[in-house]
Amino acid sequence: MSAAAPPGRVDGPAGDGRPVVEAVHITKRFGSTVALSDAGIVVRPGETHALVGRNGAGKSTLVSILTGLQAADDGAVAFDGRPAPPLGDRDAWRQRVACVYQKSTIIPTLTVAENLFLNRHARGRDGLIRWSALRRAAERLLAAWSVEVDVRQPASTLSVEQRQFVEIARALSFGARFIILDEPTAQLDAAGINRLFSRIRDLREQGVTFLFISHHLQEIYEICDQVTVFRDARHIVTAPVAELSRPALVAAMTGEDVTMSEAGHQPVAPDAPVMLSVRDLVTSSGAELSMTARAGEVVGIAGGGGSGKVEVAEAIVGLAPRAGGTVAVDGRVLRPGSVPDALDAGVGLVPQDRHREGLVPLLSIAENVTMTVPERIERRGLISSARRDALARDTIAGLAIKASGPQVPVAELSGGNQQKVVMGRALASDPKLLVLITPTAGVDVRSKQTLLGVVADVRRRGTTVVVVSDELDDLRICDRVLVMFQGRVVGEMAHGWSDNDLVAAMEGVDLHRV
Ligand SMILES: Nc1ncnc2c1ncn2[C@@H]1O[C@H](COP(=O)(O)OP(=O)(O)OP(=O)(O)O)[C@@H](O)[C@H]1O
Fold first, then answer.
1. Which stretches make up the ABC transporter domain (predicted)?
2. Where are the domains of the chain?
3. Separation CA 269–CA 292 (nearest Å)
């Protein structure tokens, strides 16, 4: 293990293969923010190497430098012992490295085949694109990497899992044998994660090297052999996964010991008034839900991919249309498909996709946090920027958002810190009902505690909270959890459930019936 090893002398496993990539003494500043400070990483051939760190530690910045999207202010990157190509030579970069991001880089309106051969279409002597040759080449490429996808289908119809496999195959077709996976499991269910991991293992056998970024530490123990930890822009440690215990890994990430505690769970008062009432709700995809929740109650809606949990939640808050049913908050019936009506009725919302429904990236933290509460920042009919900044400063402090101040554009924040801004905005209206859809996706272990701590605070003030997730830590804080499977609620579990029982129920298995 190399605690705080100086970059350039980061220990790797014994072996004489030149590093697939070696980044040394990397420093990168954005204005006054130091995103990377004399940091580095060495990844050796055939490894699956984890890169972990808290939100804002510098992981994405390193990825952008390793993939040639940004230049470091200082330091050097080498592939296979040779200096990295000039930034403008995109083809040369593509032959060395690719990153599969959480957000797709595939063009949805083009077919899979067109995406695979974008700008390198086979053309005949007449200069026209040879569509059948293109399709055959795409089929050969996917078959070579065992990706079972119809190349004629529009990319928009791919599942997240298929899209990732197609992007990996595309990277390999450029010749890259080093692939960065940036939170690849964030949108996959348990079965999808298993398939991805077995694909990673297969490709590793075939000589592909991976850099794997994830906030799910158990995944790192399952699939990675080396781990590098960044904290506050610096390289902290690189070690074989087997030699770093989970507490030691968390300590390296946070600089302190963190344990998820759920001590002091206070059950909701049985006579508390009903705050949310959902009757015979049917979503456009046919998922169904009836439920009530009391003031101060925290109710989980759990389920794997395809369970309908996100659809029902989106239908409750108006993000998605309903095919039937009624939703009432504190006795007020909500207009179907209307988010503004839900907000007006006292709903605070953390949507699943912060990129699409959550934030306006070019606006500041202050503007985003106060967007839905103009009345709280008005003074004599005018927006008071002092009030706005004060509210945003409270949010930054309360949620420990890593930013230099309320004026920082949200686009400049790391992913986990953007998620905290979304939470801050949901809380700004002092909601009666808080609906959190996969609230800790992409959030580090310490920030998770902060976000889930918020739930404990607001419930004490009488806010009803609905937590929609398949993350056990998110669900542990709930008074009860409704488990959905294939569009129906198949069970309800009281606080204190066992992990095995909940996971089995989410997979549609009733352990007690076997
Ligand atoms: N374009 C930018 N302009 C200004 N600051 C930036 C920019 N990109 C990143 N930063 C800052 O650099 C620091 C490192 O951010 P980075 O996105 O690399 O973190 P991360 O480890 O990937 O975090 P997360 O796990 O939340 O995605 C953060 O403080 C972030 O606010």
1. 21-257, 253-511
2. 2-106+158-254, 107-156, 274-513
3. 14
Q: What is the CATH code of the structural domain delimited by 274-513?
A: 3.40.50.300
The Å distance, Cα 342 to ligand 1 centre, comes to: 33
pLDDT of residue 4: 43
Q: What is the best residue among 37, 52, 60, 182 to mutate for testing ligand 1's pocket, by most ligand atoms within 8 Å of CB?
A: 60
**pLDDT mean for each 10 residues of the chain (514 residues):** 40 60 96 92 96 92 96 96 94 93 83 84 64 86 87 90 90 92 85 89 93 91 95 93 89 72 68 95 96 96 91 96 96 96 95 78 91 80 84 90 92 90 92 95 85 89 95 92 94 90 81 47
The answer to whether 2-106+158-254 and 274-513 have equal CATH topology is: yes
59-72 burial, b at 16+ Cβ within 10 Å, e below that, comes to: bbbbbbbbbbebeb
Give CA–CA dist 124/322, Å, rounded.
50
Nearest atom in ligand 1 to 444's CA: 25
The reported pLDDT for the residue numbered 447 is 85
**What pLDDT was estimated at residue 11?**
39
Two structure tokens written together for 349? 């919302």
Q: Name the β-bridge partners of 293.
A: 276
Q: What is the pLDDT of residue 8?
A: 39
Class of residue 404 by CB neighbours under 10 A (exposed 0-12, middle 13-18, buried 19+):
exposed
Q: Measuring from each residue's beta carbon to the nearest atom of ligand 1, which residues come in under 6 Å?
A: 30, 33, 35, 53, 55-61, 402, 412-417
pTM (whole model) above 0.90 = no
Half-sphere exposure of 496 (CA within 13 A, CB side): 6
pLDDT score recorded for residue 375: 80
Q: Quick check: 437 and 409 in contact, CB under 8 A?
A: no
Kindly state which CATH superfamily the domain 2-106+158-254 is placed in.
P-loop containing nucleotide triphosphate hydrolases (3.40.50.300)
Query: How many whole angstroms separate alpha carbon 41 and alpha carbon 235?
Result: 8
Q: Is-contact 23 187, C-beta < 8 A?
A: no
Q: Which amino acid is at 362?
A: L
- pLDDT number for residue 10: 36
Q: How far is Cα 209 from Cα 79, in angstroms, rounded to an integer?
A: 12
- Ligand 1 centroid–CA 62 distance in Å is 10
User: Which of 262, 268, 260, 261 minimizes the C-alpha distance to 460?
Assistant: 268
